Amino acid sequence: MKMKTNGFIGIAVTIMANVVLGGGKTTYTVVDTGQRQCYDESREIACPSADSHFSGQDGQYAGIQPAYRDNGDGTVSDLHTGLMWQKNPGRKMTYDQAVVGNRTFRLAGYSDWRLPTIKELYSLIRFDGLDPMPTLRDERGLKPFIDNSVFKFHYGKEEDGDRIIDSQYASATLYTGPSMGPDGRKVFGVNFADGRIKGYGTRMPGRGEKRFYVMFVRGNPEYGKNRFVDNGDGTVTDQATGLMWQQADSGKGMNWADALGYAGTLHVAGHADWRLPNAKELQSIVDYTRSPDATGSAAIDPVFRASTIRNEAGQVDYPSYWTSTTHVSMNGLGDRAVYLTFGRAMGYMHGHWRDVHGAGSQRSDPKAGNPADYPQGRGPQGDAIRILNYVRCVRLNTLPRR
């Protein structure tokens, strides 16, 4: 057996992994994104000093660094989350085949494998990957958003009718809102080729059933389950992760640099060490049982307060929220940052604005610019480009600054 660890490990890592809050050990460890570099509105820069422009971004903080053990039997153990993974997803399968396989899969003597939830699956994402262009036909020089020195990773294969970026891994989490697909189902998946969460129809119009990569998981049934406590002072503590959150949001949208500045100057409940959450931290508080169309709410626990907006289709909706994580392109540009949708993930398709990817999706926006320059969104599904996203800050004393 060999153990692999990645990146900087600070003194506070052990403290954070074993922190006890409210009388119970944390059960939902949010592992670091692996992003070490810092960026301005377009390019890599030296990480700024405290209180400087662009200070407070993901690359400046060292959380719990990924640590895996290859068990030598086709499985990989995550030493922080308590999850054991199938190492090699093999060939793609339909969602129905994945559900059946969930019940019959056997590996390394274990029979209690399951299809991972979207939060379990997202625990594996890394943001030191490079986002390919959708039209790319050659995977040379690319880097996926998963540790491919530990897990067997596959880009989409042309012989399967796929693009390079078609490396969507299926989860067990279905979207509670409507689907454009022929069967009315939308399953959340992580695309480890381009570093996104989207809701995917399980059938493709005119192409039959969509096929996904699948890695089954076992262990730690509490992973991904929040234990929120309203502290009565404008903050919410998640006893499962050990993170403390701003209960309200910023109340207005802003570009990425301003979002970093807002977090750096926030004072709530006597605390001045608030920061913009990284992608994995923010995704940890998404409630995938909720959506505007299913529950008339944002995709977040009601202990939080969420602003309302009018979306591109004129509907009452809920904002997307910035993270401190840069979404780096294959050319090395860092002009986009990651955001999570807590309302509909709008896109312009077939002449209409609609919820193309579902509340709880993770995409990326330009860090600066004018949203009016994107009247029909961007990309194959016309992803809405807002640029002026909202902010919900986080804090945790045991997280050191790099």
Q: Could you explain the architecture of this structure?
A:
Strand 18 (235-238) and strand 19 (243-246) form a beta hairpin. It is globular and about 50 Å long. The chain has 2 domains: 38-64 and 226-395, no CATH class; 79-218. With 402 residues, the protein is mainly beta. The strands form 10 sheets. A 5-stranded antiparallel sheet has the order 1-6-7-8-16, with no helix packed on it. It has a 4-stranded antiparallel sheet with strand order 17-18-19-27, with no helix packed on it. Strands 10-11-12 form a 3-stranded antiparallel sheet. It has helices at 11-17, 95-104, 118-122, 256-264, 279-283, 292-295, and strands at residues 2-5, 20-21, 24-25, 38-39, 44-45, 67-70, 75-78, 84-86, 93-94, 168-174, 186-191, 196-201, 203-204, 208-209, 211-212, 217-218, 228-230, 235-238, 243-246, 309-310, 316-317, 320-326, 336-341, 346-349, 352-355, 362-366, 394-395.
Question: Can you give me a brief rundown of this structure?
Answer:
The chain is mostly beta strands and 402 residues long. The protein contains 6 helices and 27 strands.
